[in-house]
Design brief:
The chain is mostly helical. About 50% of the residues lie in helices and about 5% in strands. It has a 4-stranded mixed beta sheet with strand order 1-2-4-3. Helix 11 packs antiparallel against helix 12 and helix 12 runs antiparallel to helix 13.
Length: about 290
Amino acid sequence: MTAALAPPTTVLDPEVWRARRQAHEQRVDSWLAPHLARRRRGEKHPVEDFLFTYYSYRPAQLRRWHPGAGVVLRGADPAGFGRDYRAGAARVTLDTEGVRARRAESIAWIRRLLAATAGRPAQFGCFGMHEWAMVYRQTQEEVRHNAWPLRLSPERTAAVVAERGVRCSHFDAYRFFTAPARPLNVLNPTREGQHDLEQPGCLHANMDLYKWSYKLSPLVASELVADCFELAREIRTLDMRASPYDLADLGYPPVRVETPEGRAEYATAQRGFAERAAALRARLLDALP
């Protein structure tokens, strides 16, 4: 005997939800195919593979389509969507209350972080120095992406960090700083203080919208998860173009943040990403109870 379904918010006929699912799969496949091909060949890409290695969401999970909470799918089989879906009268819907109850603590933590971040003014004065702090006082052999050369010598790279200073508010960037670079940061980010420091101009905070979206899946539609992935992918590109690495041979011309012109270019792109992230952050908050 199936459980009674809650009154639907949206009812999708088979041709509608199947078209949405196919469009999502095709969109995601354009990102997955090159990554999976490189993985089969044993190749690594410092830009394009980052979202698949740094974050825990597997390619198959990103590809799988979910309609989101409050959507009823006519003519669907719950076995094709996962354990959190319920069937009744030739239709399928997400067990929204069950998912929310099981993930209540995580949802509350994410909601609080998103709301706190949205409520702060955006800061645009970091100029990407977090990536430079991750290689500060390291040799070419010691840096994380040592298959790719630094644009400047280790000495000049360190001098740029010392000249510009570091103003990183994001714990998950700060924790990768080299030990000598950490005292140079004007803040001391911690996991416990993340809700107090995260701000909407930060590239990594905006990239992490992808993480929060997939942690909220299947409560949020897969299209929103893909939108957050797409933004994170573009942010990662800027992040590495503005980094100390020379990735020109991969097709990434540098944003030379060690110069006034490069800093202006970086801040302009950062503002654009912040605007797009604000809209995505609002959509995520709208999807939360």
